Amino acid sequence: MGLLGGCASGSPSSSGLDRVADRVLLPPGDKEHALPTRRCGNYFLITTRINDRGPFTLLLDTGAAATVLSQQAGGRLTDFSRPSDGYAIGSQGRRQPIDRVIRIESLTAGDVTFMGFEAIVLDLSSIQAVLGTRVDGILGFDAFREVLLTIDYPGAAVRVAGGSLPPADDQFILPLIRSDRPEVRARIGSGPSARTKRLLLDTGKAGGFTFADFDDQNFSSPPSTVAMGVAIGGPFELKAARLADDLSLGGITFPKPVVERSESSDLVGADALKSLVITFDARSKRVRFTPSASGPVITSAPVRGIGVGFAYGEGMWTVDRIFPDVPTDAGGLTPGDIVIRLGGRRLRELSCTRPTELFETGEAIDVSVIRDRRRVDLRVPVMTLVP
Fold it and tell me: CA-to-CA distance for 330 and 129, rounded, in angstroms?
């Protein structure tokens, strides 16, 4: 089960990195401007041109502290590069060396142009393998510091505009704690025992809520290992459990949500945000949430799976491990099995599909693997890992 754990959350240590766009050129008028975007699961991929070259496909990640380019994309822009001896820190606290820094004179997406900032070059091969589609980089939050950025999950659109949001009302317009990272205060529980937590709004994270103090939380059932995640710095085992208390972002309530464990970051990702329209105003340090027609209460479904962790390569998934707390034998799967079909579909047909979507219904799933150069067809039970 592949999850992006906050693609580039954390701060690059490269000294002197110019992360903020100096200027953003918008067409005349007061209207919003849609960026050329397509959905990839819960992610938004934006088609861009960088320094009059391209096209480049960038994943929009509000949790990223810098814009990132893949090694392949950076190779097409070497005449704009400078060396770096820094590193990037992922959402799990792991470091990855920065290959070099690219000066972005202009980044154009549709009718909008971002000018005068820098991107770091990293190895993004594992993230591309999880998505199953080409990604040339990650467009970070700092690029949008001078404009309103709207991420419309129900409408599958990304828009930018000038202007500013109205003052915070602590219901659907909340203050941002910082201007460089979209952090808000969440409330867990109610009454005198309620507590607050700072959460980063991270559109580059596939799951819902992630807590660094996971082991100190009050859960309604024991934690389980549910997946292998992928973040900057490498793969990791992902544990999850359901909170015993409700969590609120202003006037939006998440009844007893599922929370995942992190080594370093408190985040809220796309799974929790996917029914909202979110507008960020970094200059005024505000964010607006517009709930869907179903209302300001967002439920968190049980987590289902088959109890194995996959390692991801280009066009290939390999069974990496069987999770020890799984109450079955994983239906005969063994580490080293190379998956060629899942749910009757070839892997290339699962581009932008999270395996969890295949596990949401049904008591079992068909899995075909190559083992010792022979094809083995299995019927693997699907179980509820987090009720």
Answer: 23
